[in-house]
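Researcher: Go.
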Amino acid sequence: MLELLHGNKRYSSWSQRGYLALCHAGLPFRETAIWLDTPAGDALLRERCPNGSVPVLYDGDTVIADSLGIVLWLEAQYGVAFWPEEPAARAQALNGVMAMHSGYLSLRGEMVCNYPRRYQRFEVSRAARSDLDAIFDWMLQSRAWFGDASGGPWLCGEYGAADFFYAPVLSRCRTYGVALPAGLESWAEAMESRTDVQAWLEAGEREVERISASEYDTP
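Model: Structure:
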């Protein structure tokens, strides 16, 4: 059986992407939690995670690191469809996923994932706002070009990697009180109603482990 190693569900957005990829694949898998910033967790990262980070997928003796690596592996080995069939929509989805995979560092660093928290007076920095503006522009463009034409709620017409790679942006907006553009409301509602997304968030709420750097208070 496939095994997914993931971090705290409360904090680990990249782990959530790996989890949602496996749920979308419809393949049976078991989970191994690695509690981040703990001696036991650090030891497991060294022992079982080749990049020293999560998520990691074990497929028998084969080890696949990183959420994008997991997507590509499941696509190549199991024929899972993560991208739209229509070429232009597929290109748009690939562009969005690659941008998320390699960029938006200010957003990640300043608005860390903490799914259950709700900050009432958080001030978004200029750099993080620039990241959010770029993200919203891509998402709104995706909806206008492909999502609306499909008649469904998804970003590029079909549910896939583009949607679950941007799921943590939605949760960050909820955590830090950032309003989504009106054109993304149907997508947000569809994402938050998915059973796999709900299962991840509910599990994060039940966790008792805490990372102090991700539990700061605002004035």
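Model: The chain has a mean pLDDT of 95.
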